Amino acid sequence: MYYEAERNLYFYLSGENWQMSASLPGGLEVQLGEYVSMDLDTDRPYVYYEDHKTKYPPGQKQKKEHKRDK
């Protein structure tokens, strides 16, 4: 999941498709804990999901890591 604070939008994977919404659907549980803060130069962060998943695997505790991506 991605959250863009500037536009108050969530981007989340629903099945095989990415959805964009001002709020999360009721069935999507969010646990705020480990996260990575990224400064992205795109309005579609999910395009880089596979790269981000590899770069920031769960459990790495790279909180508030600032990276400049495409």
Topology:
Layout: E1 2-4, E2 9-14, E3 17-21, E4 39-40, H1 49-55, E5 68-69
Parallel strand pairs: 4-5
Antiparallel strand pairs: 1-2, 2-3
Description:
This protein is mainly β. The chain has one domain (2-24, 32-69). It has one helix and five strands. The protein has one helix spanning 49-55, and strands at 2-4, 9-14, 17-21, 39-40, 68-69. It has a three-stranded antiparallel β-sheet, with no helix packed on it. The chain has a two-stranded parallel ribbon with strand order 4-5. Helix 1 (49-55) links the parallel strand 4 and strand 5. The radius of gyration is 12 Å and the shape is globular. Mean pLDDT is 80; it is low at 63-67.
Which strand-content bin applies to the residues? 25-35%
Count the domains: 1
Beta strand count: 5
Helical fraction: 10-25%
Radius of gyration equals 12 Å
Total helical elements: 1
What series of H and E elements makes up the topology? EEEEHE
Name the shape in a single word.
Answer: globular
Indicate the low-confidence ranges by residue numbers: 63-67
Largest sheet, in brief, is:
3 strands, antiparallel
Biggest sheet, strands in spatial order?
1-2-3
